[in-house]
Structures are given as structure tokens and as C-alpha cells.
Amino acid sequence: VQLQASGGGLVQAGGSLRLSCAASGGTFNRGAMGWFRQVPGKEREFVALFRGDANVARYADAVNGRFTISRDSAKNTVYLQMNNLKPEDTAVYYCTARVRWTVLYHRPSEYNYWGQGTQVTVSS
């Protein structure tokens, strides 16, 4: 299984970016695909995910109402639309997936597959 992330970049505060994560070699319709982020010196933190078996999304409190995750099952791809970005959203964003749903979805140790990180930088 490979996860290919794209879409990071530099944006001013209040702006928008969309991240994409395309999976190949496997499907996660009964599990989850989503995003974590990490800044230097800190642990990787949960951002958002799409739960495949229930077609629902989960968000971290810090991004709820500003970020929207969606899935294109035909393309085996999830998207993270990030609006009203803030400087504190600056981080490396990692795409991730697991085959089965878990209630411990906010823990990075629960995920089997990770994509390469993509840098998101929000200037003030």
C-alpha cells in the first residue's frame, strides 16, 4: 500500500489550501483515511479523518468548522479542504490510513500506513 500526498504550500492567514491523499495497492472502505500534522519538537497530532464504514468525518477541535475532509471512493482518494488558515496550522501534514475502524483513531500509533509529509506554512 502506498499513500501519495500532495497540495501543501505557503499561504497567508485567512487563506485556503486543499490537500489530497491517493491510496494505491489497497482500499480502506471499512477503515479510515485521514490526516495528522506535526511541528518540530512536538508529537504528531490528529487533524481529521474520513470513516469509510460509516461515511462520517471526525475532526480535531482546533480545526472543526474550518477544515473539511471528503472522499472520492472511485479514486481511492481523500481530500482535506482547509479554510481560514491560521499561523498555528503551520506543520507538516501526513496522510494516513488503517484497514479497520478504531475508536482510538486520534492516536498515530493506531495507523498502519503513512504517506510522505507535505508542508503547510501559514504566514501572519
Overview of the molecule:
The protein has no helices and 11 strands. By secondary structure, it is mainly beta. The strands form 2 sheets. Strands 2, 4, 5, 6, 9, 10 and 11 form a 7-stranded mixed β-sheet that branches. It has a 4-stranded antiparallel β-sheet with strand order 1-3-8-7, with no helix packed on it. The mean pLDDT is 95.
Number of E-type strands: 11
Largest pleated sheet: 7 strands, mixed
Distance, first to last CA: 37 Å
**Beta-strand percentage range:** over 45%
**Residue share in helices?**
under 10%
Shape: globular
Poorly predicted regions: none
Radius of gyration: 13 Å
Helical run tally: 0
Strand-pairing-aware structural class: mainly beta
Order of helices and strands: EEEEEEEEEEE
Mean pLDDT: 95
Annotation keywords:
about 120 residues; mainly beta; 7-stranded mixed sheet; 4-stranded antiparallel sheet; 11 strands; about 0% helix
Write a short abstract of this structure.
This protein has 124 residues and is mostly beta strands.
